[in-house]
Every structure is written in structure tokens, then in C-alpha cells.
Amino acid sequence: MYPNINKNELARQLGTTMGWSNKKALSFINCFIDIIIDKLMKQKRVVLSGFGVFQLSLRKMRKVIHPITKKEEIIDQHYAPRFSMSSVLSKQINKKGQI
């Protein structure tokens, strides 16, 4: 399993690559995330060529059985975020000998 990378580590690497301070890189990442969230809240798809698509998926109302109490519960209809990677990213990740 590969180690996770958090936002601060991503900002550090972005700052190093771009010649920015960590504060500026973190600000960029936060702004980027805020824009994606704003567009999703407006029911828009966010398409990043060569990377993938962020969009919302409508989940229908459903009945479930609580695993501990064994009582039937209803989960209301709701939106769930979804990410679909592009074929370019998929091919790059799944190159033979890489993993």
C-alpha cells in the first residue's frame, strides 16, 4: 500500500515545483477546491482534461437494515460526489511494470 499524501504535503511539493512559498501553494489548493465545490453545488460538471471529471450523482431513497439494531431505516434521496478518471490518467496509472 502506498502512503497517503495530505494537503500540507501536496502544498509543500507544489511550492517547491512552482517556486512558491508553502502559504501561497496552500492558498492555491484551497481556492482550487473551493471552485470545484462551488461548481458542484450549482449542479455543474468539472472536467479536467487528462485527469478526470468531478460530478454529482443522485442517489435514490432506499430502505436499509441497521446492522446493530436490526431496525429498518430509510435513507433519503441525496447527492453524492463522484470522480471518473480520464482514459489518459487510467493508462498512465496502469502502465505495465509500474505497479
Structural features:
HU Protein, Chain A; 3 helices; three-stranded antiparallel β-sheet; two-stranded antiparallel ribbon; alpha+beta; 99 residues; elongated
Short description:
This protein has 99 residues and is of the alpha+beta class.
What do these coordinates show?
The chain is an alpha+beta fold and 99 residues long. It folds into two domains: 1-42, no CATH class; 45-99, IHF-like DNA-binding proteins (HU Protein, Chain A). The chain contains three helices and five strands. A hairpin with a 3-residue loop joins strand 1 (46-48) and strand 2 (52-59). The longest helix is centred in the first third of the chain and has 20 residues, at 22-41. The protein is elongated. 2% of the residues are buried. The mean pLDDT is 93.
Amino- and carboxy-terminal Cα gap? 11 Å
How many beta-strand runs? 5
Element-level helix/strand string:
HHEEEEEH
Which fold name corresponds to the CATH topology of the largest domain?
A: HU Protein, Chain A
Q: Just name the CATH architecture of the largest domain.
A: Irregular
Alpha-beta classification: alpha+beta
Supply the CATH class of the largest domain: Few Secondary Structures
Helix content, binned percent: 25-40%
* Mean pLDDT over the full residue set: 93
Shape: elongated
Overall radius of gyration: 19 Å
Low-pLDDT segments, ≥5 res: none
- Going across the major beta sheet, what is the strand order? 1-2-5
